[in-house]
Specification:
By secondary structure, the protein is α/β, with parallel strands linked by helices. The chain contains 9 helices and 6 strands; from the N terminus they run βαβαβαβαααβαβαα. It has a single domain (about 1-235), classed as Rossmann fold (3-Layer(aba) Sandwich).
Length: about 240
């Protein structure tokens, strides 16, 4: 099971959740920080990510990582576990590499841009500039400016409002568990319900008393649901 972090995430920001989940499932897990995040190579100072930055992570970077680590997904199909932007990347990868996928678990993924998302990302920009958010992110990123501004400037670019993967995800063939908190501040439940309409084998999990990070807000419930879901697929 490969873990794909959120738009401001990294290996360390998962804390012990991947270990807890993989121990419960009896799976091997792979956790990595994408370029620009954590201890990975930071984004160059003037580099601006393209509108297709999630596509490139899904279709270029992740396949290259699997090759570098000698992971043959054709021989042993993989599970992807993605959160937020990582969930979108997981969906895109699964839509392209259909024969290599055992299944998907996506938490608070984005399949299109909503006003709520943009408003929250604008608030994050203010917090980064005016509060101690930069110091907090500095605990998890070698270069917090690389991580924050790469993500924030792309999402807030006017052209990004038209971004959508609603049509592309129709190609997904593997089982999907789409999870979202009812109180998610970065997206409405239409994000995962939109997946279910386009990918009929999707199972939805809408968690009460949960915001944008189900693995932090409801870890025990999430692990139990994932365990049941994966067991049903293997069974």
């Amino acid at each position: 099971m490969i873990f794909l972090h959120e738009g401001l995430g990294s290996v360390s920001m998962w804390h012990d959740f991947p270990q807890l989940l993989c121990t419960e499932l009896g799976y091997r897990g792979l956790v990595y920080s994408r370029p620009g995040y954590g201890q990975s190579t930071p984004r160059a100072h003037q580099e601006q990510w393209g509108m297709d930055f999630m596509h490139r992570q899904a279709l270029e970077v992740l396949p290259a990582l699997l090759d570098a680590l000698y992971i043959d997904a054709n021989h042993q199909p993989i599970w992807l576990f993605g959160h937020s932007d990582g969930g979108s990347i997981a969906l895109l990868h699964a839509a392209c590499f259909t024969e290599q996928m055992a299944g998907l678990i996506v938490l608070a993924p984005h399949i299109m841009v909503e006003t709520l998302t943009i408003d929250s990302i604008k608030q994050a920009k203010v917090a980064y500039e005016q509060t101690n958010l930069r110091d907090k992110l500095g605990r998890h990123h070698n270069n917090p400016d690389s991580a924050f501004w790469g993500w924030n400037k792309r999402w807030l670019h006017p052209e990004f409002e038209a971004w959508s993967i609603e049509e592309e995800i129709k190609a997904i063939q593997c089982p999907v568990l789409a999870v979202q908190g009812v109180n998610d501040e970065y997206g409405t439940l239409e994000q995962i319900r939109g997946i279910a309409r386009r990918v009929p084998q999707t199972q939805l999990l809408e968690l009460a008393d949960c915001r944008h990070s189900p693995h932090r807000d409801q870890p025990a419930a999430l692990i139990q649901h994932v365990k049941t879901f994966t067991a049903r697929q293997s069974g």
